[in-house]
Each structure stands twice: as structure tokens, then as C-alpha cells.
Amino acid sequence: MIQNYTSLVKSKLLAATVFLLSISTFTTFTYIPSEFKTGGGSCYQGISVLMTNAVIIFCLGLFSLSFVLTFLRKHEISVLISVISVIFWLLWAIANSMNQLIDGLLYFSFFAVAGFFNVYYHIQVRKIRIFSNL
Predict the structure, then answer these.
(1) What CA–CA distance (Å, rounded) separates 56 from 74?
(2) Rounded distance between C-alpha atoms, residue 50 and residue 27, angstroms
(3) CA atoms of 60 and 35, how far apart (whole Å)
(4) pLDDT in tens, 8-21
(5) Distance between terminal CA atoms of the chain?
(6) What distance in Å separates the CA atoms of residue 83 and residue 32, rounded to the nearest whole number?
(7) What is the pLDDT of residues 82-107, one digit of tens each?
């Protein structure tokens, strides 16, 4: 009975996490405020968008690695990798939002929330795994 409940909870959390990460990634790639497109003047236009896209791909790679490690039952490492990815994204968001605070918070927050949800998923799976091993 407990096994069925834990697998149901894990599958629902996984589906919600993957859905939220997918939607937030799509939104972050497609909705780019004009301040970020033209940031840096005429010589550097588009470089901040290119760098932001590279950072989001890096963070998605870390999130994907954390999912793989979770399925391999390396829960502590997957939580750590997820936390590192969220911290990296937040530092990038803060660095890019200094001049356009409101637009930056709106633009970077959706993927940050998805990242926090990813960390929450890995922590819950770790707790379920510990509870089911008792």
C-alpha cells in the first residue's frame, strides 16, 4: 500500500516538474523583453540574449543530469546539482536585472520557480526513498 502511494506521488511530482520546466523554458526562450534584445548598445545587441540562452541550456543540462541521477538512486547528488543550477540561474538573473529590475524579475522568475520546483521534487523523492527503506 505504501509502495503504491509513494510511486503515485513520485509520478505526479515528476510529471508536474517536467511540465513546469518545459513551459518555463519555452517561455524564457520565446518571450524576451526588448531591453534585453537591445542591451549593450548597437555593438552588443543580442549578446545578452545569446548568453542567457546558453545559461538556460546549461541549467537544463544540470536539471536533466539530476533527473538521471535520481533514477539511478543518487539522491544527494541530484539535490546538490539541482541547487547549484538554481543558484547559477539566480546569479545570472541578478546580474542581468540590475538596470531593468522589474522586467528582469518578470523575465527570469518563471524559470527560477521551475528550478525551485525541481529542487523540491528531488528533496521529496529523497524523503520518500528514505521513508520506504525504513
Answers:
(1) 24
(2) 15
(3) 24
(4) 556 777 777 777 77
(5) 15
(6) 25
(7) 999 999 989 988 888 877 778 778 88
